[in-house]
Amino acid sequence: MIQFQHISKQYGRDTRALNDVSFDVARGELVFLAGPSGAGKSTILKLIAAIERPTAGSLHVFGQDVGKIKRGAIPFLRRNLGIVFQQPCLLLDRSILANVMLPLTVTGASGAQADKRARAALDKVGLLDRAQAKPLSLSGGEQQRVAIARAIVNRPQIILADEPTANLDRASANLVLDALKIFHAAGVTCLISSHDEQILDRANRLIVLGHGSIMASYSNAATKAGGAAPNASAEPDAAPDDAPSAPAPEAP
Ligand SMILES: Nc1ncnc2c1ncn2[C@@H]1O[C@H](COP(=O)(O)OP(=O)(O)OP(=O)(O)O)[C@@H](O)[C@H]1O
Ligand SMILES: [Mg+2]
Asked: pTM of this prediction?
């Protein structure tokens, strides 16, 4: 589903953020990206979303050569990506329901349909009862779960989460991770960058970056959704009834 082949990324003249990086992510995998500050984690996620372009190598997402993608095709690529940043980036003057409805309304869903799907997404992250609240009345972890609901509401096939648990306490970080894992269990491919050692300790597939190169890579076949988890407590018990079991790309 995602293929990095000998990808290098240079910013300006001097900064080589990635240096000959190759890896594949299969449909339904949950992959963690680790490594110190400046290692290249965010750059990998930005390349997948065509926020940045590779300097060398080939990068395919959904079989499409994203390194050479035309500008006009980028919105269609992103419609299949749910992106979660370290800061939730919510519109503060709107309710959390309105925030989660936004990706649907901009892609032309009717108000009633957007409302229904946004409420279902908020329910998945455990915040339906706060639908009418404004973002600043929520904790940082709750805001991050709203951001996850907003990222998933269009039923993307891939979630890219860049340090979604940074700045959160342990309990909030676990709730955010649980929210992501619910979507992984429903079949969504997830790439999550993190510094959090407790989270990384439980990862089944881990890519460790250092100075723009892959320093280590650890993988366990049970990461795929539906696979038997070696550490049952780290996986959600089951996909919720109305989870997006077959996330489908929107036709361009
Ligand atoms: N837009 C940019 N322009 C110039 N240099 C950049 C840019 N974005 C990233 N870099 C540089 O590329 C390298 C990799 O950055 P990247 O943001 O991918 O690291 P990271 O692993 O996500 O770090 P952190 O854990 O601090 O978020 C760093 O040296 C960074 O300074
Ligand atoms: Mg980063």
From this structure: 0.85
